[in-house]
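Subject: design request, 218 residues
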């Protein structure tokens, strides 16, 4: 009985390590700004570029804010000019795999190939990047292995907006603002229309409350 309890506890601990990117359990992961600088945060956007990304870029330009975009390779091929615009306007671009499909998350070689394919797609639009965000924030041993094989630097977050789940704009806004602290890396998605609406409120809040938004992760 004691043995079974220990096994369950061990499995729970390992699962926690796999699914909580902040733990850096299987691979080193940066999930906040170093030294937690006062009132300085990073805005990051996953899963693009999409039909909405140009509007996200318009908003960021309006508020003179630079962000980090973790792009999916097949989306880069679909919207190459949007990625070129990201770079031209001073945003940082990272790798978010080629398809973002769950089936490859637990296969080291397959995931490494997706990372490399995305690197190739990005190179065609003038981007070379060491930054990588694991899909779903999963950092299992195969993911760690793929990161090592491709020489990437894993970037996580400490504010997960949950905008893929929370559709109510007021609730989403309050969730993000309520979690703000020094040195946050904030996760949102530039493929969602309701996130676009919340972003303008968030940018105004950050401006009114004297936050600095940076895309320098060093």
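Subject: RE: design request

Done. Sequence follows.
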């Amino acid at each position: 009985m004691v043995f079974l309890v220990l096994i369950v506890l061990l499995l729970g601990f390992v699962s926690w390590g796999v699914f909580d990117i902040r733990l850096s359990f299987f691979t080193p992961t940066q999930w906040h700004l170093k030294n937690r600088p006062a009132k300085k945060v990073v805005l990051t956007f996953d899963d693009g570029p999409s039909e909405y990304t140009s509007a996200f870029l318009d908003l960021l330009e309006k508020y003179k804010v630079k962000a980090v975009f973790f792009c999916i390779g097949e989306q880069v091929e679909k919207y190459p000019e949007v990625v070129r615009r990201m770079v031209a306007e001073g945003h940082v671009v990272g790798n978010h795999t080629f398809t973002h499909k769950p089936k490859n998350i637990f296969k080291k070689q397959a995931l490494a190939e997706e990372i490399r394919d995305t690197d190739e797609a990005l190179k065609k639009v003038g981007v070379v990047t060491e930054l990588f965000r694991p899909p779903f924030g999963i950092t299992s041993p195969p993911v760690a292995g793929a990161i090592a094989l491709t020489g990437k630097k894993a970037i996580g977050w400490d504010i997960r907006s949950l905008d893929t789940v929370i559709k109510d704009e007021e609730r989403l806004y309050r969730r993000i603002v309520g979690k703000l602290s020094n040195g946050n890396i904030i996760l949102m998605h530039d493929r969602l229309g309701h996130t676009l609406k919340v972003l303008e409120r968030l940018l105004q809040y950050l401006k009114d409350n004297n936050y600095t938004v940076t895309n320098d992760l060093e």
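Confidence is low (pLDDT under 50) at residues 2-17.
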